[in-house]
């Protein structure tokens, strides 16, 4: 496979392998990238904190740490955002980063992490089969820049719902411009004028970044993704967008598995 070939969804992990050693440099050139991840991570942490406060009023609240999975963790930027927000909240947690790219996981594991953070290789679609999860119910799942890379999104959300404990939280941080002409125009201009050229400068490869443009153009609209979440069984589904030039381009989606009656 040459670097000029197009990437399809099944080849995304391998395409990330090609640029893994330069990916942190690339995202570091994206203004607000890490702050946006922290903002979405805060939505997840707020949900966990609310659940912990509710549990505090029970006769026998759980003393176990919350378990959070970061699917599509890449080189660890989203994992770092979760660590920072979880630590500030003072929550006791176990955090597992999962990604399909061996190269990106290598970069993630090379960083310094607390002892309660670990990583595992696997595709989000097969998350239930990961031995590292050991059949445990998850308190929260974070998915940053992942969902648009999955063809069978309805199946993915159904799987994630089943992995969450009753009342557990899913937060999706994702691009979506469908139905928004202004956001689509800005996205295309930035991709072809900035992102693709920077991809060449930083890694001498552009096929992943050309795929990035197309994957966002083809991604569900915001209302369509909220509908997918509801149809999968999530409740309290809501979404918000970020500020700045990426307003209407990057969004945070929240859903909760229904509690037992």
Characterization of this structure:
Helices cover 45% and strands 20% of the residues. The model has no long low-confidence stretch (mean pLDDT 91). α1 packs parallel to α4 (102-109), α1 packs across α6 (181-203) and α2 runs parallel beside α3 (77-89). It has a seven-stranded mixed beta sheet, with helices on both faces. The chain is α/β, with parallel strands linked by helices and 261 residues long. It has helices spanning 12-28, 33-56, 77-89, 102-109, 153-163, 181-203, 207-217, 222-232; strands at 66-71, 93-99, 117-121, 138-144, 164-175, 235-241, 250-256. The longest helix has 24 residues, at 33-56. The termini are far apart. It has one domain (30-176, 220-256): 3-Layer(aba) Sandwich (Rossmann fold).
Output the keywords:
alpha/beta; Rossmann fold; seven-stranded mixed sheet; 261 residues; 8 helices; 7 strands
CATH superfamily: Vaccinia Virus protein VP39
Q: What is the total number of structural domains?
A: 1
User: Which topology does CATH recognise?
Assistant: Rossmann fold
Question: pLDDT average, as an integer?
Answer: 91
């Amino acid at each position: 496979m040459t670097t000029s070939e197009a990437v399809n969804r099944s080849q995304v992990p391998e395409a990330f392998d090609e640029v893994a050693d330069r990916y942190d440099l690339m995202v570091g050139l994206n203004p607000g990238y890490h702050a946006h991840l922290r903002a979405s991570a805060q939505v997840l942490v707020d949900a966990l904190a609310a659940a912990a406060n509710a549990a505090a009023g029970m006769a026998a609240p759980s003393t176990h740490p919350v378990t959070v999975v970061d699917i599509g963790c890449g080189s660890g930027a989203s994992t770092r955002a979760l660590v920072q927000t979880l630590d500030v909240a003072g929550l006791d947690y176990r955090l597992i980063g999962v990604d399909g790219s061996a190269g990106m996981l290598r970069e993630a594991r090379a960083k310094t992490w607390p002892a309660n953070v670990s990583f595992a290789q696997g595709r989000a679609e097969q998350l239930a089969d990961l031995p590292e999860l050991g059949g445990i119910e998850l308190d929260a799942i974070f998915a940053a820049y992942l969902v648009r890379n999955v063809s069978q999104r309805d199946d993915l959300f159904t799987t994630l719902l089943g992995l969450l404990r009753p009342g557990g939280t899913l937060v999706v941080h994702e691009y979506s411009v469908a139905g928004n002409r202004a956001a689509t125009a800005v996205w295309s201009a930035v991709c072809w004028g900035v992102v693709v050229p920077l991809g060449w400068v930083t890694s001498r490869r552009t096929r992943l970044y050309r795929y990035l443009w197309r994957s966002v153009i083809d991604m569900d609209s915001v209302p369509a993704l909220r509908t997918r979440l509801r149809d999968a069984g999530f409740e309290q589904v809501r979404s918000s967008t970020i500020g700045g030039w990426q307003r209407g381009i990057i969004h945070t989606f929240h859903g909760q598995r229904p509690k037992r009656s």
